[in-house]
Amino acid sequence: MADGASNNELLLAACKQDQDDILNDIFNEPESFNVNCRDGLGNTPLHYAAQLGCLDCVKVLLTHPNTKGLNVNPCNRIENDTPLHKAVSFTDDPMVAFTIVDLLLEAGANPSLRNKLGQKPIELVDPTNKELRDHLEKAELAAQIDRSELALDDDDDSSDGEASD
């Protein structure tokens, strides 16, 4: 590993350079690291991995046993973008972008969050990428349904034990 660099700096660098082996080394070391560390722009390792299409790094960040406290919805400082905003903007390989978006959504990324320009991730998708747009629409609808079911469950709890029609 690099002399003088902290594990947090190494996490950011590894995700910028698609070095999942370095991530695994850091996560397996007993030394401390913050999986949600940020650079001066407020980007986390997950922001960089998603933005640059580093699929293996995204997988390690989302699945390694020592990354349980990973925040999948952090907003950076400049654009107020989440990693999901960054992932949908990756256009080099649409299948990689789709896979990263899918992994982020499965991990709990919120497709309804808006950036500083008021844009949700779906609004940043290349208009020709119908598959990714459809996937995000379904995820957003599913999240809305889940929220409405939670509201209904809360309403049911306040009744006299009978479900409302």
From TrEMBL:
N-terminal signal peptide: none
Question: Keywords on this record?
Answer: ANK repeat, Repeat
Among the GO molecular function terms of this UniProt record, one is: ubiquitin-protein transferase activity
Q: Which GO terms describe its biological process?
A: protein K6-linked ubiquitination
Q: Which InterPro entries match?
A: Ankyrin_rpt, Ankyrin_rpt-contain_sf
Superkingdom is Eukaryota
Q: Does the keyword Repeat apply?
A: yes
Q: Which SMART domains does the UniProt record give?
A: ANK
> What stretches of residues are ANK repeats?
41-62, 79-116
Enumerate the Pfam families for this protein: Ank_2 (PF12796)
Tagged with keyword Repeat: yes
Q: Which PANTHER family match?
A: ANKYRIN REPEAT DOMAIN-CONTAINING PROTEIN 39-RELATED (PTHR24171), BRCA1-ASSOCIATED RING DOMAIN PROTEIN 1 (PTHR24171:SF8)
**Entry protein name:** Ankyrin
Specify the species.
Dispira parvispora
